[in-house]
Amino acid sequence: MADLWQVTLVSPPYETWTYGLPSHFPPLSPGQRVIIPFGKSHRAGVVVGPAEAAPRGVEIKNMIWPLELSPLLDQDFVDMAVNLASRQMVHVGRILEIALPRGLRTAAVTFKVDRHMTERNLPATMRPPDIVRVKDRDRAALVDLWLEGRMRVRINAKKEAEERYVSLESDPPWAVRPNAKRQLRLLEHLMENGPQSLYSLRHTLGDWAPDVAVKLEGAGVVRLGELTADHMAEIDGAGQNGADDPGCEFALTDEQRTALDEMTETLESGGGAHLVHGVTGSGKTVLYMEMARLLLEQGRSVLFLAPEVALACQLYRTVARRFPHFRTIFYHGYQSPKKREASFRELAGGEDPVLVVGTRSAVFLPLPNLGMVVMDEEHDESFKQEDRLAYHAKEVAWFRTGRSKGLLLLGSATPDVKTFQAASAGRIRVSTLKERVGDARLPDVELVNIAELGSSKQLLSDRVREAVRETVKAGEQVIVMLNRRGYAPLMYCLDCGETVRCPDCEVGMTYHKGRERLVCHYCGRTYSYPLTCRKCGGVNFIPMGEGTERLEEALTDLLPEDAKVLRLDRDATRRQERLEEILGAFGRGEAQVLVGTQMISKGHHFPGVTLVVVADGDLGLNLPDYRSSERTFQLLVQVAGRAGRGEHPGRVLIQTRNPDHPIWKEILGGDYQGFFDREASRRNMFRYPPFSHMALVRISFPADYDNGPAALSLMGEVLREQGRALGISVLGPAPAPLSMLRGRKRFNCLLKSDDWGKVRGLYAAMARANPDPRKVRTGLDLDPLSTL
DNA sequence: AGCACGCCGACT
DNA sequence: GTCGGCGTGCTC
């Protein structure tokens, strides 16, 4: 028998199976990609190691062909995947699926061989099934050709077609038949979620989606293709008007010099995590660059991670300008798969130190001799992937820098409470920057009590209205943030007092006036408006509460005729070019007021803005989630930073109904330490993270699966009983916020423990008790961002 | 994820 | 009578 290898499938069912290596091939190495026969078809897999013996009762098949001459991934990369998989309690293949760009996971490839092989009646191009049919005597020659590098692999063009993005070409109402349910479904989906690749559409909506998209393209309603130049400009250019690399032109301050010494010390004492806690504008970027220079001199690579594309782009420009003679690579999820694949291959094949800047997914890139990972704005929630498989880039970066004795540099003005706790407890080192570089000044932040406004129709107080009017009159600009899109979050039926709720999610549906629809912000379900009340058949609804759309209307009424108000939220930027249009117009001063959701809080830099209004500062505070204060603190400190970035001093007004809440003093004074102390003691008292280990267990089954509820209660019982024995507190199972998704009923269970190992043990016990794993799916989210 | 098997509706 | 829709099951 040929020698046996363990091969991990990088697509469902993600399992690791045993395959034989055909004769004539030299031994394989872990990290080598191969094409394997799988059932009636073939798949791509990754060799994770040699197999000791064949499993009993199965007939071992031979692999078809390797996908590259030398392993794409090294042992460290495989170890990382294995380690992460065991921590997340998933198959290794699921980690590899996330880590590899799509082109490196597909088995839809064609092998092209040098022409002279055709003399042996072999075709010049072969697909995997053709290779299986090659006669033994030709096979040896083919292997020789492969080893000489005269047989190449090319990804099939048909697969690439699935990578095209679908985006809306026109606004609703669309020119489609009103009973074309699938077409409307797809259009609404694009409306809610922005441009999507055909691949992800097929995944979220169903196999019909690509065909429907092509049909809609024919009708001219959607666009199909690469992301447009407009969209890339929007992504790449969003930071262009920003004051990037603050402080680069200054000599290092004493504070910065001290921080630099401290970071160097951490690096030289064997690496590990190091927090740079510095107020906005204190020159953290300069420190990143200085450390990067140090590492490059040692011949080590550096990875920079930013929470979103626009910020990553800004950082990339700084890096490229600072190190013009080094190889720099930019990597993010909106790039074409071709580009991502090329970057991945280039890195995997290289040995020289390289600088990479990217977003979350870049944490998996195979950097040669990794010396440092920088995570800018480390508190940002985008570093954690929540859908599909829950992983945090910080965890991956921690593992990788740990392996290579590198430095994990975490930078933020408002660090993650968990990170700061680790720093306070002395588990990671911290450098603090208290001063701003140059003579930039933090804006004045004031509270506006709106408690007495009650439920009257106006959300904006007289004081804020006056301030907005005055600012506009003075020729300056205003940003108003309301973290709630739509016109009104609730619609009341005047006849029976019922509110319109989503039948799947049971939450109130938000009225979107411009779209003439009611939208569920959880699942995206929409009803057209006007509509009739489900309970009493009435047709008279009144909108309650306020969203950005209504606020835009109110501000337009407030200001003189010639003043212009723009709105920036997910609805307004649904069509690709819109974001750039809006930001551009506001930046050029064509409008005086910009209303928006938290989208406006990040990265953009408008020198003309002297007033920032937070319309509802309490919005995030009252959520029943243990991280809501932290989120509010971080968001409001960020938003406040939008004011007074030009010559004129800035002013921030925050409206609240609870002016006595202690968080305001901390936000007004930019007092992170004060906030942290209070928050830490509260979390300690209630055993919330970081003083406990929290995990979310997700359980789902098809809505029409009769045994589902019984299976759920059985598994819930196992969790509670065995949880009690392990000292783990168990909450639930309770219906998830999105209780129905794609025909599946979803439930959550919250675990609180003193140990991750126990959590994994309990989850494993529950999974064993699953009566039908095919129907009842489970997932584990360690340290969830939200417990909702 | 693919691909086959298998069971019910609209057509040559 | 068949063609073909997608539910279900399996893959070293």
TrEMBL record:
<dbReference type="InterPro" id="IPR042115">
    <property type="entry name" value="PriA_3primeBD_sf"/>
</dbReference>
<feature type="binding site">
    <location>
        <position position="523"/>
    </location>
    <ligand>
        <name>Zn(2+) 2</name>
    </ligand>
</feature>
<comment type="similarity">
    <text>Belongs to the helicase family. PriA subfamily.</text>
</comment>
<comment type="function">
    <text>Initiates the restart of stalled replication forks, which reloads the replicative helicase on sites other than the origin of replication. Recognizes and binds to abandoned replication forks and remodels them to uncover a helicase loading site. Promotes assembly of the primosome at these replication forks.</text>
</comment>
<keyword id="KW-0378">Hydrolase</keyword>
<feature type="domain" description="Helicase ATP-binding">
    <location>
        <begin position="265"/>
        <end position="433"/>
    </location>
</feature>
<keyword id="KW-0639">Primosome</keyword>
<keyword id="KW-0862">Zinc</keyword>
<dbReference type="Pfam" id="PF00270">
    <property type="entry name" value="DEAD"/>
</dbReference>
<dbReference type="InterPro" id="IPR027417">
    <property type="entry name" value="P-loop_NTPase"/>
</dbReference>
<dbReference type="InterPro" id="IPR001650">
    <property type="entry name" value="Helicase_C-like"/>
</dbReference>
<dbReference type="GO" id="GO:0006302">
    <property type="term" value="P:double-strand break repair"/>
</dbReference>
<dbReference type="InterPro" id="IPR041236">
    <property type="entry name" value="PriA_C"/>
</dbReference>
<dbReference type="GO" id="GO:0006310">
    <property type="term" value="P:DNA recombination"/>
</dbReference>
<feature type="binding site">
    <location>
        <position position="496"/>
    </location>
    <ligand>
        <name>Zn(2+) 1</name>
    </ligand>
</feature>
<feature type="binding site">
    <location>
        <position position="536"/>
    </location>
    <ligand>
        <name>Zn(2+) 1</name>
    </ligand>
</feature>
<dbReference type="InterPro" id="IPR040498">
    <property type="entry name" value="PriA_CRR"/>
</dbReference>
<keyword id="KW-0235">DNA replication</keyword>
<dbReference type="Pfam" id="PF18319">
    <property type="entry name" value="Zn_ribbon_PriA"/>
</dbReference>
<feature type="domain" description="Helicase C-terminal">
    <location>
        <begin position="525"/>
        <end position="683"/>
    </location>
</feature>
<protein>
    <recommendedName>
        <fullName>Replication restart protein PriA</fullName>
        <ecNumber>5.6.2.4</ecNumber>
    </recommendedName>
</protein>
<keyword id="KW-0413">Isomerase</keyword>
<dbReference type="Pfam" id="PF00271">
    <property type="entry name" value="Helicase_C"/>
</dbReference>
<feature type="binding site">
    <location>
        <position position="520"/>
    </location>
    <ligand>
        <name>Zn(2+) 2</name>
    </ligand>
</feature>
<dbReference type="GO" id="GO:0016887">
    <property type="term" value="F:ATP hydrolysis activity"/>
</dbReference>
<dbReference type="GO" id="GO:0005524">
    <property type="term" value="F:ATP binding"/>
</dbReference>
<dbReference type="GO" id="GO:0043138">
    <property type="term" value="F:3'-5' DNA helicase activity"/>
</dbReference>
<dbReference type="InterPro" id="IPR005259">
    <property type="entry name" value="PriA"/>
</dbReference>
<dbReference type="GO" id="GO:0006270">
    <property type="term" value="P:DNA replication initiation"/>
</dbReference>
<dbReference type="GO" id="GO:0006269">
    <property type="term" value="P:DNA replication, synthesis of primer"/>
</dbReference>
<dbReference type="InterPro" id="IPR014001">
    <property type="entry name" value="Helicase_ATP-bd"/>
</dbReference>
<dbReference type="Pfam" id="PF17764">
    <property type="entry name" value="PriA_3primeBD"/>
</dbReference>
<feature type="binding site">
    <location>
        <position position="505"/>
    </location>
    <ligand>
        <name>Zn(2+) 2</name>
    </ligand>
</feature>
<dbReference type="Pfam" id="PF18074">
    <property type="entry name" value="PriA_C"/>
</dbReference>
<keyword id="KW-0067">ATP-binding</keyword>
<dbReference type="GO" id="GO:1990077">
    <property type="term" value="C:primosome complex"/>
</dbReference>
<dbReference type="InterPro" id="IPR041222">
    <property type="entry name" value="PriA_3primeBD"/>
</dbReference>
<feature type="binding site">
    <location>
        <position position="493"/>
    </location>
    <ligand>
        <name>Zn(2+) 1</name>
    </ligand>
</feature>
<feature type="binding site">
    <location>
        <position position="502"/>
    </location>
    <ligand>
        <name>Zn(2+) 2</name>
    </ligand>
</feature>
<keyword id="KW-0238">DNA-binding</keyword>
<dbReference type="GO" id="GO:0003677">
    <property type="term" value="F:DNA binding"/>
</dbReference>
<keyword id="KW-0347">Helicase</keyword>
